Request: fold
Amino acid sequence: MKLVILLILFTSAGLSKQVNALEAGDLAPNFSLSSMHNENVVKLSDFAGKVVYLDFWASWCGPCRTSFPILSELYQNYHAQGFEIVSINLDEDPQLAEAFLHQYPVSFGHLNGFGTSVDKAYGVNAMPTGIFIDAKGNVRLIHRGFKPNHKPFIEAVLQKLIAEM
Reply:
């Protein structure tokens, strides 16, 4: 009997974890975060009706060094068509993030996510993690890691989501 109860508890725990995990098709959790320089507060809902790529990154992340120039190029090419990149830094030390941004400058803004629950809400467990959100606010793709050969795939997803607007 004890074995049956333990089995039920473990099975229930596993199912509840799966139910709580963010997946493609889910409504993207809203958030409010300060910009890296605390000039203003930005909410995900500020970008309603646009295709959004949430980019979770940190200064110590090697693949982030590869992703920034490619994301910057995509932003420049598709921003006028309704594409936004919301960059969320998870560094504990903001000076490390600033040094990274001086080395890898981009034209999109950056938010401070350290010490918030935004990374948990989006299930960030790798750096970088990119989340595509469609114009209706639904998560369409969760992309973990980054290599240069990922660009064609990311661009194809971006083009598809823009065409759906």
Q: What stands out?
A: The beta strands are 32-34, 41-43, 51-57, 83-89, 110-112, 129-133, 139-144. The mean pLDDT is 89. The first strand starts at residue 32 and ends at 34.
